[in-house]
Automatic annotation (TrEMBL):
<keyword id="KW-0460">Magnesium</keyword>
<dbReference type="InterPro" id="IPR035895">
    <property type="entry name" value="HPr-like_sf"/>
</dbReference>
<dbReference type="Pfam" id="PF00391">
    <property type="entry name" value="PEP-utilizers"/>
</dbReference>
<dbReference type="InterPro" id="IPR036637">
    <property type="entry name" value="Phosphohistidine_dom_sf"/>
</dbReference>
<dbReference type="InterPro" id="IPR000121">
    <property type="entry name" value="PEP_util_C"/>
</dbReference>
<protein>
    <recommendedName>
        <fullName>phosphoenolpyruvate--protein phosphotransferase</fullName>
        <ecNumber>2.7.3.9</ecNumber>
    </recommendedName>
</protein>
<keyword id="KW-0597">Phosphoprotein</keyword>
<keyword id="KW-0479">Metal-binding</keyword>
<feature type="domain" description="HPr">
    <location>
        <begin position="285"/>
        <end position="374"/>
    </location>
</feature>
<dbReference type="InterPro" id="IPR040442">
    <property type="entry name" value="Pyrv_kinase-like_dom_sf"/>
</dbReference>
<dbReference type="Pfam" id="PF00381">
    <property type="entry name" value="PTS-HPr"/>
</dbReference>
<dbReference type="InterPro" id="IPR001020">
    <property type="entry name" value="PTS_HPr_His_P_site"/>
</dbReference>
<comment type="similarity">
    <text>Belongs to the PEP-utilizing enzyme family.</text>
</comment>
<dbReference type="GO" id="GO:0046872">
    <property type="term" value="F:metal ion binding"/>
</dbReference>
<keyword id="KW-0670">Pyruvate</keyword>
<dbReference type="InterPro" id="IPR008279">
    <property type="entry name" value="PEP-util_enz_mobile_dom"/>
</dbReference>
<dbReference type="Pfam" id="PF02896">
    <property type="entry name" value="PEP-utilizers_C"/>
</dbReference>
Amino acid sequence: MLNLTATDVRMNVQATNKDEALSLLAKILSEDGLATADYLAGLQAREAQTSTYLGQGIAIPHGTPESRSCVQQTGVRLVHFADGVVWNDDGERAYLLVGICAKSDEHLSILRQLTRTLGDDVADDIKNAKTPEQIITIINGDKAHGKTSFVVHENLLKTEVVANDIDELYGVAVNVLKNQGKITGVVGIRPAFVQLSSHLGCVTLEHDELVAEPALALVVAKKALAWQDKTVQALAVIADNRHTDKQALAGVYDVLLNDEFNAKLTALSVGELAEWLGAERAVHWQSASVVLLNAHGLHARPATALSELAKGATGELKVAVDNGAYVSAKSLTKLLSLGATRGQSLTFIAEPNTDATEYLPKLIQAVQDGLGEEVTPISHSQASNQKSGKENHEPAPVLDLTGNTVITKGERTHATSASAGLAHGEAFVVRQVRFDYPVQGGDKASEWASLQQAIGAVKDELKVIVQTAKKASIAQIFTAHVALLDDEEVTHGAKDGIDDGLSAAAAWHAHIEQLAKTQASLANRLLAERAADLRDVGQKVLAKLTGQVVATEPDEPYVLIKEDLLPSDVARLDPARVAGILTAVGGASSHSAIVARALGIPAIVGAGKGVLDINDGEQVLIDGGQGWFVVAPTDEMVAVAKAEQASWAERKRLASETALNPAITQDGHQVEIAVNLGNVHDTKMAVENGAEAVGLLRTELVFMSHQSVPDIDTQVADYTQVFDALDGRPLVVRTLDVGGDKPLPYLPMPFEDNPFLGVRGIRLTLRQPALLENQLIALIKASKGRDLRIMFPMIGRLEEWHDAKAILDKVLTDHPHDKLQVGMMIEVPSAAVMADVFASEVDFFSIGTNDLTQYALAIDRGHATLSKDADGLHPSVLRLIQNTVANAHAHGKWVGVCGELAGDERAIPILVGLGVDELSMSTGSIALTKAVVRELNFTDCQYLAKKALACTSAGEVRALTTAKES
Ligand code: PEP
Ligand code: MG
């Protein structure tokens, strides 16, 4: 720490340029007896050699070695320029000069100290500082808390790395850091390289969440790699966060910048590198590798055999797949998590000086013998595939622990109903495309030209799609794809690969994969999903380059079969051509299911990987409401289905004729039918389709339609559209429900291991009260006294309700509203269980069955394989609903259901029977739900609900009620 006092700092000094600032500094140094007036010439000479601007608004002027004779006393003076002074040719402004008077090299230790400050992102603090004390606090790095460290370890150093370009080398370094647990991922496109010497480049990964432990990875390639107009053979990647021990890091830099080290660098062994860097040395574990032969990979049975064998050793045994991270070979779950597939190499390592080393040959033998399963050796063609010069893009077989769905032709196979309706058509299975192309390129100029040509041709095709798209959402998606192909980062990145001798296709594929992987590793799910777009355009260009035809959709309406669907996949579907959707994974409340419902496309999800083996062109019949499908149905089945489809269409038509009538049961019990909206423009259409209210306005989706947080006026304009279209009908607005799987791109959130259990919903807005206050003000202003109902999402504890209510009460003092109801979502089981307590304080409850089910059953609603079991008709969820309704009614309060269950035809009689007062759903379900309610008898529903509460599984409940939708 620098030993500074307030008298060493001068605040609010003014200078119009750098020369003037240096003169003022020299004057201060001289007045304080640190240097003679001639020191100014030394300061100026130093700046003429190179600017002393450090970053973060700090410059460190100091004299040249020749001017040391002017130094009378070693010391430092800090000069603060509130308006800043332009300090270098890039126009960067220095707000703080750390003027150094040093008789020898003391400025180096000051520099180290300041690198700590620089890591703290203090530019604004420095600029806005008002007192010497504030400056001293910042400079001493007191902003950083906690223990600091910086790991330099032999196992983070690699030599002889095979890499074709600098990005590959970077990828190796990132993997080294990941495998050793130093980072959990990387953010965005790779940070800029800084060249430290003629051999060595450096990249800093700075992130407080993704960097688990600050560390250095140093990777040395086998050959020099082209980088811009230079070459680089080694790369230092520094994982940096606020806990970095800057002193240790400065020590590492000293080595990395050392001329002698750099002269030898490319010839040094890992041990020698470790010695230079003073790295911790690895204890060498004996290792042995073997190829896995089991047809279905290391699934539960062989993994159990392996872990049982490994447990015999008292010493540690670890295993890794290919070059991945090591996990304990004794842990079944860890072994399964490896996802090892046939043909991959398992490397075992044994703890030194223990009996574990004796187990290595036993483990190798056991794997070779098939771990209890019959195995066949890998054929020569399979083994030589990688060496053939053709890339093998066959997707790796996926370890399926739940077992595949057995599909028998002509018979019904059941899966999760996601969107009601019948569909019949040819199967169109979207599989990963396999492209064949040579890895080595020919003439570089023509490889580059053919890549440009392919990109241009794809762009032209995309532009046609944009122009002819009937839906704005589709046009937006493909406009974004055109923009990707206009981005030089995307298009020119492949040039390095071509320059290194790769073919255009190989260079393009490697580059797009690298970009997509980086993108996919983002903590923000929305941004991570954009990796799919990169791969999408990447494939289109690859198809053009290789002349391969990517399977085109059948002309007739078809059944789309895919592993899973992203919301963006569904959004770009043309409902006129896609008769139905069948996916291998996913659940009813996954976003893709919600979008499929919104588009009115019948869909079944979570049907197992077996659906991907259905042949293209095979006839498929699906019943999205009942949740079954038939491959190769008989003519009779199709005829029956078509008849049912006709009657289903007729039912829908009839229902739509009476959509504007109320939903009153045969015995006179009325249920309010409302709409869920995520888009303010859809309100009018919902009202025309029978919506009696908006039961849930998902305002986070409204926020997502803006590029940045909408201000009060923008929000007022949005909400006014809804109020106007509602024409006096009530509006239930949910305050911002960000987090979980709904991050807001412009509201950066720290990485969380369990975002659904983290800062989401009310937990987030209570931490950003201004956001909530502005939203409440905008709502009240937009309502102009009309029927407004505000509810808070994700309330789990009474304190949260009180805190949210206090913010609203504060807003209401300045913006009163006398027609306002205030309620809360019931999405967290604790709130449902304590509904008696909450009921005495709220005006209403709205039950979010999507989250309530997820939390009650502990199943991630978006989980690829589990979410099909997150059924809101599970008796546990029904009991929570029953408790909520009973307590609300006891206090004279009303209850709505706004989760997906509200529009589920089989759930409607049960929810009505439980006494739910309002059902809120997507526009497409309103007319039919109203028709269903009109056919019901409330007393029968109450009896049915009782029976459902006594059931022991969701299946039993569903069996009580038969859907009539198809
Ligand atoms: C719910 O959880 O049921 C709900 C309606 O909220 P969302 O689906 O937006 O999380
Ligand atoms: Mg919810």
